[in-house]
Amino acid sequence: MDYNSNRKKLPLPEYGRNLQKMVDHIGTIKDRDERNRAARTVIDIMGNLYPYLRDINDFKHKLWDHLAIMSDFKLDIDYPYSPPQRETFNTPPKKVEYEKGKAKYRHYGKALDLMIEKAAEYKEGEEKEILIKLLANHMKKCYLLWNSSSVDDDKIYSDLEILSNGKIKRKDLGLIETRDILFRNRKKPQKSNNNDRNPRKRRITK
């Protein structure tokens, strides 16, 4: 028996072995014009395998890159785009640095700390006022997720001042009512009817 485990490993298994054989055959074609025609045919076949991706930007570019990879970067054809180089895939990705430091209040999170710091640096005006109100309302939502009983707006204003290092002092932003936030938090998604999922349990009505 000829098992796939005994065959050559596919560079891009999602395209299948038959398409890989087509790509391998292109490399054996001596006439350059014929190789180019064969390559375009294979690109069309690759695109037909994933028609739902055609609206994605640079879809064709990705297909030609995949063709280069499947040919082990040895295919001598007229690429419509600059083909990728083998070295590109041998270079390890850059290390992503994680944000250092802990949040002052864990229930708000570090990201909210940073947004409040940025908001404090905004020039005075309508845009800054809108941003501060949005952040304060988000703080209130986060607080009620952590402590689902209640919270005074004065507590939110106090925390906002602390997180902004005293640069943002507000007392009258008109925050969302606590009861409205609690109602949304407690609102459960509707359960689907199991009979709709199991055709055997559906009742036939006449």
Summarize the helices and strands and which ones pair or pack.
Layout: H1 17-26, H2 32-49, H3 59-70, H4 86-90, H5 110-120, H6 126-146, H7 153-163, H8 178-186, H9 194-197
Helix pairs in contact: 1-2, 2-3, 5-6, 6-7, 6-8
Structure in words:
The protein has 206 residues and is mainly alpha-helical. The protein has 2 domains: 80 residues; 77 residues, no CATH class. 49% of the residues lie in helices and 0% in strands.
Salient structural properties:
206 residues, mainly alpha, 9 helices, elongated
Q: State the secondary-structure class.
A: mainly alpha
**How many separate domains make up the residues?**
2
Q: Specify the overall morphology.
A: elongated
Radius of gyration: 29 Å
Taking the sheet with the most strands, its summary is: none
The H-and-E topology, N to C, reads as HHHHHHHHH
Distance between the termini: 55 Å
> Count the strands?
0
Mean pLDDT across residues: 84
> What share of residues are in beta strands?
under 5%
Number of helical stretches of at least 4 residues: 9
Detail the poorly predicted runs: 199-206
Helix share of residues? 40-55%
